[in-house]
Every structure is written in structure tokens, then in C-alpha cells.
């Protein structure tokens, strides 16, 4: 199958069905299935992660593993109901290296991110969120179409240059980053920073709703 075009689908269900057969990059060959986004069709907030992990690859759903549990915890603390947002990944297939019975996550390459970006673009065109939160470097690269450092861009709302509806973006870390930190002090500090980022998203949405 050729790389997906940018035409707007009739529905997320149609887009999900089409993505299930994507062959735009080689990652489909070893993955169990395409892991597409999920959530309300016109959610005001879209969260974009990096790629499915082992649990997501097997379940066919985004953020159902350890990183997903961390995300759920932070969303609840920030006052955001997961059931009211759209959650997806920049790359829709799990990239890994087998180590015995374990499948070790591998970072997607720039060509793989580019090959999958049209799916994100079509998801965003369908959902039309007011705010897109890019979680992690891969997600930020997909959302902005170029390498976007997290440290330099975190903590502020950024206008999406390719948006025709004044949508904004927010850059933050991926929840799996918190799970990899080596000590309790670092975990507490970075967890609080992640909560602040999502509280900024929640505040933006409240102001938008009140306007």
C-alpha cells in the first residue's frame, strides 16, 4: 500500500479501518497490528504519544500499558477526563528488538515518523482538536513536521502553523520517561512538571469553553 493521502475520511472508523492495512514503512511486518487512536470524534484535546509499546501492540489500543497507567494518573491529577480526549501515537506500529521472550522498544527513525505522519494529520483533520499535546520527541517531530526539542519548547502554547482553525500545541515529556528515572527525587520532580504541563492544557480548555 502506498503512503496515505491527505484526503479527509468520512469518519474515524473509516480511517481506522484504512490504517489497519498500512504498508507505508516496514514496521508493519513485525508488529501484531496497527494501533490507531481512540476517543470522542470531536474531542477538544488530542494527546499524541510516540509509538505503541508491547502491551498496546497486543491489545490494539493506545496507552494501556505502564506508561498508560502513569498517563491516567497524571490526567486525573490535572483534572482531565481521559474519556473526553482523543489519544493516539505518532507511529502506529510497535518497533522493537526481540531479546528472548522480551520485546525491547526501539525509537522510530525519521523516515518512519514521516511515513506515518499523514495518519496523524488525517486524525487531526477529522477530530479538529483545539489543543494538541505532543508527548515526547517523536510526537513533537510528528506534530510540527520537524525535530522540535522538548526543553526549549515546553511549558507554553504554540500556534500550529499548518492549522486553519487556530489550534494550539503543547510540548511535554512522554509518560514512559517518568518510569525510567533512576531515583525518587527525580521521579517526584519530573512528575510534578508533567502534571503542570497537563494543568496548562486543562486551563486552556476551560478558558476556551468559557469564551
Notes on the structure:
This protein is α/β, with parallel strands linked by helices and 211 residues long. Helices cover 43% and strands 14% of the residues. The chain is built from eight helices and seven strands, in the order αβααβββαβααββαα. It has helices spanning 12-19, 54-59, 66-78, 110-127, 137-144, 150-153, 175-180, 184-210, and strands at residues 45-49, 86-89, 96-99, 102-105, 131-135, 158-159, 168-172. The strands form two sheets. A five-stranded mixed β-sheet has the order 2-1-5-7-6, with helices on both faces. A hairpin with an 8-residue loop joins strand 6 and strand 7 (168-172). The longest helix has 27 residues, at 184-210. The model has no long low-confidence stretch (mean pLDDT 93).
Could you list the spans in which at least 5 consecutive residues all have pLDDT below 50?
Answer: none
CATH topology: Uracil-DNA Glycosylase, subunit E
The major β-sheet equals: 5 strands, mixed
Q: Could you give the order of the helices and strands?
A: HEHHEEEHEHHEEHH
Instruction: Compute the number of structural domains.
Output: 1
Based on the coordinates given, report the CATH architecture. 3-Layer(aba) Sandwich
- Give the tally of β-strands: 7
Structure annotation, total helices: 8
Structural classification: alpha/beta
Basic shape: globular
Strand order of the largest sheet: 2-1-5-7-6
What is the CATH C-level name? Alpha Beta
Amino acid at each position: 500500500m502506498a503512503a496515505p493521502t491527505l484526503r479527509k475520511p468520512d469518519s474515524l472508523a473509516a480511517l481506522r479501518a484504512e490504517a489497519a492495512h498500512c504498508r507505508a514503512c516496514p514496521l508493519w511486518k513485525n508488529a501484531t497490528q496497527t494501533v490507531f487512536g481512540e476517543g470522542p470524534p470531536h474531542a477538544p484535546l488530542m494527546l499524541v504519544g510516540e509509538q505503541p509499546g508491547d502491551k498496546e501492540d497486543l491489545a490494539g489500543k493506545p496507552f494501556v500499558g505502564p506508561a498508560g497507567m502513569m498517563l491516567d494518573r497524571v490526567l486525573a491529577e490535572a483534572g482531565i477526563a481521559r474519556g473526553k480526549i482523543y489519544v493516539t501515537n505518532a507511529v502506529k506500529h510497535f518497533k522493537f528488538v526481540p531479546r528472548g521472550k522480551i520485546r525491547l522498544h526501539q525509537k522510530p527513525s525519521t523516515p518512519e515518523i514521516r511515513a506515518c505522519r499523514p495518519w496523524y494529520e488525517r486524525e487531526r483533520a477529522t477530530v479538529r482538536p483545539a489543543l494538541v499535546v505532543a508527548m515526547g520527541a517523536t510526537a513533537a517531530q510528528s506534530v510540527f513536521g520537524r525535530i522540535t526539542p522538548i526543553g526549549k519548547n515546553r511549558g507554553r502554547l504554540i500556534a500550529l502553523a499548518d492549522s486553519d482553525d487556530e489550534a494550539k500545541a503543547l510540548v511535554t515529556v512522554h509518560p514512559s520517561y517518568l518510569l525510567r528515572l533512576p531515583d525518587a527525587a527525580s521521579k517526584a520532580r519530573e512528575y510534578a512538571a508533567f502534571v503542570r504541563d497537563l494543568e496548562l492544557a486543562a486551563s486552556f480548555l476551560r478558558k476556551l469553553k468559557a469564551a
